């Protein structure tokens, strides 16, 4: 499949051309090489997982994609253009939203207000415009509320929309974080270990919501995950990292039968 071609998956979803490309990325922290010469692409509309054992470099890679880290070597290409070094907020403005492994919500604020903060990118009118031209600001406010309410409905969190986040159980907080990221209407949604710390039921719920988001909104999703099992049913393609290197890349079936991947997960010594 060429980078420009689209294809239809077995379950009838259309996967488009390449939207993001990591080319020969190397990232060091002092003497530690967290990522060594890794290349892979992300296609429009796909669910792309990056997996690997502890310390493999997954978080580092997610942080390169989201602009938190600038790699010493390599290039990030987005929508056909090489991305210059950017601040994380600039990357977010380009339509790349993320969630965090350790939930980063405003605990004292309600679910609704937390999700509203995800709309910052869409809020055009500044203070002056609001003062001079109330109509525009009001129209925007209505649009923002409508978009947020749609997401709240979609993720089935209506019942807790007024509840302060601090009072919610872990699994629901994760869902609120997903809602906030979605409120930005991202082209690419980055999920940092979305299932970490969840019980089986919460994992099943989160998997379903990730699939539904991808299906309903056509959002491209890249996620990192430690646990190989949970992503295999979810992902179209999987990158496998180990000790900062890419050791596998392909469909879940291809990756599952890759000997280097099996060895890495069984903890077989490497040279
Ligand atoms: N800020 C940092 N400073 C120094 N070394 C770091 C930093 N962040 C990561 N590393 C090192 O880079 C390597 C890759 O770490 P990274 O957190 O990216 O792996 P990971 O696959 O996400 O691991 P985990 O599954 O445990 O979260 C590790 O050796 C780690 O100690």
TrEMBL record:
- A Pfam match is BCA_ABC_TP_C
ABC transporter domain residues: 20-268
- Keyword ATP-binding annotated: yes
Q: Which GO terms describe its molecular function?
A: ATP binding; ATP hydrolysis activity
Q: What superkingdom heads the lineage?
A: Bacteria
Protein keywords = ATP-binding, Nucleotide-binding, Transport
Q: Which GO terms describe its cellular component?
A: plasma membrane
Q: InterPro entries under this entry?
A: AAA+_ATPase (IPR003593), ABC_AA/LPS_Transport (IPR051120), ABC_transporter-like_ATP-bd (IPR003439), BCA_ABC_TP_C (IPR032823), P-loop_NTPase (IPR027417)
- What is the protein name stated in its UniProt record? Amino acid/amide ABC transporter ATP-binding protein 1 (HAAT family)
